[in-house]
Amino acid sequence: MIPRIVMAEALDDLAADDPDAIRSRIDLQRVHRSMGTRAILLRGLTSMATGHHKAIPLRLLEIGAGDGSLMLSVAQALTPRWPAVELTLLDRQALVDRSTIAHYAQVGWTVVEEVCDVFEWVAGSVDLLPGGCPTAHWDLIVANLFLHHFEDQPLASLLTAIANQSSLFFACEPRRDWLDLAGSHMIGAIGVNHVTREDSVLSVHAGFNGHELTALWPKQAGAWHVQEYSAGLFSHCFRAERLELN
Ligand SMILES: C[S@@+](CC[C@H](N)C(=O)[O-])C[C@H]1O[C@@H](n2cnc3c(N)ncnc32)[C@H](O)[C@@H]1O
């Protein structure tokens, strides 16, 4: 198996208004279409929510949300089954534009953009929940193409914070294997720029395989049902459901 190697991605070091970054974020939507990400997320989220005590997650947090467009496409597909969701989009760059928020409003979802480093949230220095209630739970936390940015140790602390503050968690990440690595080298075929081409290869090297995320999920965080699996041609998913709230 290819060893996991985490390296800084080019997009992460570019300013939000850098033309190469703007183009690469548009490319990301094309990458999601070729990865089938929306369908993978929809399947994962709806099947988890079906067994959840609330059935419809009301309070949802996406970490490393980027411009929020991927979750918007999911919200549009979930309407009208998931009305009135309160969504917080966390990213360390301010990337969500007004029209995206307006489109969320059209499906009845309220959006709050939170610009901070996710590890400020892990450290407790950023309180994302209204009323400053530290024990309040997110119904659902989602991460997409995000966890692979981190080495195992910080990732374990991020997963612990997630387990302490949510009832459901779903992540869709790059799968790390030879087929996916070959695919990442050919991504230029879909017309993406040099930043996206470079980052795609780095993402696969930093991606996941087998039960690597399960191994990092906290054991002391209460009773959870966890599953980790390959999805589509290029994705690796992890889902966790808190059992006592079902
Ligand atoms: C590959 S993009 C994925 C965006 C979106 N989830 C998607 O799938 O389209 C990763 C995102 O994570 C954000 N990011 C990276 N490190 C972060 C950190 N430590 N805290 C918060 N956001 C971070 C970047 O700004 C970027 O928008």
Overall description:
The chain is of the alpha/beta class and 246 residues long. The chain has one domain (10-242): Rossmann fold. The chain has nine helices and seven strands. The chain has a seven-stranded mixed sheet with strand order 3-2-1-4-5-7-6. Strand 1, helix 3 (69-78) and strand 2 form a beta-alpha-beta unit. Helix 7 packs antiparallel against helix 8. The relative contact order is 0.18. The mean pLDDT is 91. Bound molecules: S-adenosylmethionine. S-adenosylmethionine binds at residues 12, 28, 64-66, 70, 91-93, 117-119, 144-146, 149.
Brief characterization of the structure:
38% of the residues lie in helices and 20% in strands.
